[in-house]
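Incident log, support desk, overnight shift.

02:14 A customer reports that sequence design results differ from what the structure should imply. Their input is reproduced verbatim below. On-call engineer (initials T.W.) acknowledged and began investigating.
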């Protein structure tokens, strides 16, 4: 049975990755970090042409391979307009919402390598001045990035090197509480990258070789819908997304459990794979829930949509407040690791 120390290791790795800004389209540093982290555990890893990371965890039967998918790209924003005031109108990358980003600190990355700080604020954000403050519908047209620089015109901002197309990253505010709760933006899905590193370390530390060939694909365009559309190694017959498990009204999963998804917005997952995941949870005594996600799609949905002939599944630690300031728990991490071990019988 895998020890809980590997859940702690998974969180430590996830926390390091969360400190690297990587919204969709701006993932090179995060991908390089993931490649190096798997390499350090003794598993060959390389950057794909698309920018993801493909890792070989070894194993025996390569004609019945398993691909585990997680993503390191996150939500974020891009400069869409430099206003006459010198402030920035932004457009979202992925499902980032203005309501969840308002009053959050941001960094603006320029193509020259300079980085500037600012805050996403409602336009005319002072309550003592704006009598309609509470009535304004939040969107990326009614909010703006206020730079922490002395800028008063578009020319002032451009003089800093900021231009349309520059990337805007939101502060993740990562922390672990004494009670084991894990809080951060972008646990979706950097927490699961950490989990796969924890699984890889378990294999490495114990000299375990899976009976079937096992690969990991860390994708970099999941949040915009095409992360898992490529880089499936020959011989793979099953692909499992290790992503966030949904927590909310109408669902049974909590942050302390591993979620097994039976169906999402793209349709049902493989009945066979879901059954084997449930059996793996029972065999390893993992605390699990089976749920149907109402507004969700995963990397493996895209893998099937790209035409790959394989069976698919989805698991992940329960995550509350998805696409906002998210929360999970170290027990959810541990239960996810248990299911992975049970599924591969290692």
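02:41 Re-run completed on a clean worker. Output:
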């Amino acid at each position: 049975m895998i020890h809980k120390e590997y859940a702690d290791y998974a969180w430590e790795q996830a926390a390091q990755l969360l400190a690297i800004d990587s919204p969709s389209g701006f993932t090179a540093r995060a991908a390089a970090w993931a490649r190096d982290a798997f390499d350090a555990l003794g598993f060959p890893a390389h950057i794909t042409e698309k920018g993801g990371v493909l890792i070989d965890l070894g194993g025996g039967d390569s004609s019945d391979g398993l691909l585990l998918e997680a993503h390191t790209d996150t939500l974020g924003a891009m400069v869409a307009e430099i206003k006459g005031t010198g402030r920035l109108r932004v457009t979202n990358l992925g499902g980032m919402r203005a309501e969840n980003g308002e009053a959050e600190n941001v960094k603006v990355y320029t193509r020259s390598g300079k980085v500037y700080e600012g805050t996403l604020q409602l336009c005319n954000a002072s309550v003592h001045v704006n009598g309609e403050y509470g009535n304004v519908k939040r969107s990326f047209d009614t909010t703006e990035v206020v730079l922490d620089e002395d800028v008063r015109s578009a020319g002032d901002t451009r003089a800093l090197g900021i231009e349309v197309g520059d990337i805007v990253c939101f502060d993740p505010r990562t922390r672990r509480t004494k009670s084991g709760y894990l809080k951060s933006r972008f646990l979706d899905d950097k927490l699961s990258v950490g989990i796969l590193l924890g699984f890889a370390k378990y294999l490495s530390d114990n000299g375990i070789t899976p009976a079937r060939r096992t690969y990991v694909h860390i994708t970099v365009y999941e949040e915009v819908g095409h992360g898992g559309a490529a880089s499936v190694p020959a011989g793979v017959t099953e692909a499992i997304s290790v992503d966030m498990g949904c927590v909310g009204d109408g669902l049974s999963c909590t942050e302390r459990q591993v979620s097994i998804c039976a169906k999402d917005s793209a349709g049902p997952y493989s009945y066979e794979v879901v059954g084997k995941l449930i059996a793996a949870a029972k065999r390893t005594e993992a605390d699990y829930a089976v749920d149907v996600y109402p507004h969700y799609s995963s990397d493996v949905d895209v893998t099937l949509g790209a035409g790959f002939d394989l069976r698919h599944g989805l698991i992940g630690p329960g995550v509350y407040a998805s696409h906002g300031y998210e929360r999970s728990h170290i027990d959810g991490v541990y239960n996810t690791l248990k299911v992975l071990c049970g599924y591969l019988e290692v």
